[in-house]
Structure formats: C-alpha cells, structure tokens
Write a structure and sequence with these properties.
- This protein has a single domain, classed as Purple Acid Phosphatase, chain A, domain 2.
- The protein is 19% helix and 32% strand.
- The chain has a seven-stranded mixed β-sheet, with no helix packed on it. A five-stranded mixed β-sheet has the order 1-2-3-4-5.
C-alpha cells in the first residue's frame, strides 16, 4: 500500500546480534487535538499494521511516542489500543520529552521496555533532547528534531522530511505523515550534544543524497 511505502521510507531496518530491529522516531500518537485536527486520523492503527507487516524481532521507538505531555484518558486509550495490537513484538522506547508518564503504559505490557537509552552492538539509541550518557559507542541513532529541508523546484519551494547525518549520529525524521519537520538549521540547536555542529549530510527518505548543509 502507498501509505506503507511512505512509512517504510521514514523508518530503518537494522540487522543486529539481537535480530532485526525496526527503527522509527517521533510517532506523536494522539496528536490530532494538539495539532488542531477535529477528526480522528487513526494513524496509530496504520502504524501498528505497518510494524506487523515488517515482522521485526524488535521495535525501537526513538521517543515522543505520544504528543500530549501528560497521560489523560484520551491519550491513554489510544496508546493502550496501539500496544495491544503489538503484543507479539519486543518494543523498546527511548523516553522523549513528550513521554511523561509513559511508564504507566510500560507496566501494562510485558513486551514494552522504557529507558533513557539503549546500547546494542556499540550503537546508541536515544531520543536526543538530553545529554549523552557517559558510555562508549561507535554510532548513534536519534530523533527529536523532525529534520526537514526546503527544496526548490523552479520558482516553487517545498519542505521535505529528511535523514540528517552529523559525524557518527543519524537523526531520523518523524514517522508521522501528518507532522511536518523542522528545518535542520534550526532543529540541530535543540540537540544538546550537537548544537555546536557546523555541518551535516542530508538524505531524502528515498535515499537520495542532497549533499552537505551548513548550520
């Protein structure tokens, strides 16, 4: 399905010693009211079906699983429905700045684990809003800033989500198709350990390399 193709391009599959990890960032479930939408998109159902179709050994959610900062009835209902359909998969969540009280969801499901970060095969998985943990790693994957760039088509300018590589850090775009990204030049300042970075490499979700961008 076309929707699944878009979700596939906004996520990554990694082969690790623990098996295949499906990696995605910033779903912001229960986002509709916060973003001014007056209809239910049921994005959480679409995302769950996509995850099941990929049959991963692990699902790594790089934070901001939900949009509201708290965990009121509406948000909790959506999260419980989402995780209930994924009970056959091990789910790892790196806690993001929107994930207040996400531990209440963790307690409901034996297959869900929440932590500040995970380290697998010398790869660090982290949301990106906090300082780096004092551990050794070779590469890192994060989200948080919803990276995007502006592309010119003649006289028209379009914002496009992108993957941003800064040294050994790869920043994923938000998996949520209803949420636009931040321009990478502004977004990079929101990552404490990368706010002094001078440049990064930009890739479109289809793998097209756009070149380096200076911050």
């Amino acid at each position: 399905m076309e929707h699944f193709k878009n979700l596939e391009q906004l996520s990554l599959e990694l082969d690790t010693s623990k098996g295949k990890i499906l990696l995605l960032a910033d779903p912001h479930l229960a986002f509709e009211l916060s973003r001014g939408l007056r209809i239910r998109t049921y994005f959480e159902r679409e995302l769950a079906e996509f995850i099941k179709s990929k049959e991963p050994d692990f699902v790594m959610l790089l934070g901001d699983v939900k949009e509201p900062l708290g965990l009121k009835t509406y948000t909790k209902k959506i999260l419980l429905e989402f995780f209930s359909t994924l009970e056959d998969f091990e789910i790892l969540i790196t806690k993001g700045n929107h994930d207040g009280k996400i531990e209440e969801i963790e307690r409901e499901f034996k297959n869900v684990k929440v932590a500040e970060y995970f380290l697998i095969d010398n790869a660090l998985f982290i949301h990106g809003n906090q300082r780096l943990p004092e551990i050794e790693f070779e590469r890192a994957y994060l989200g948080h800033i919803h990276p995007a760039v502006r592309i010119k088509f003649g006289s028209a300018v379009k914002k496009a989500k992108c993957f941003l590589r800064v040294c050994n850090f790869l920043i994923l775009p938000t998996i949520n198709p209803y949420i636009e990204g931040f321009d990478v030049r502004q977004g990079i300042r929101m990552i404490p350990f990368l706010k002094s970075a001078k440049k990064g490499k930009v890739f479109l979700p289809d793998g097209t390399y756009l070149g380096e961008v200076s911050f």
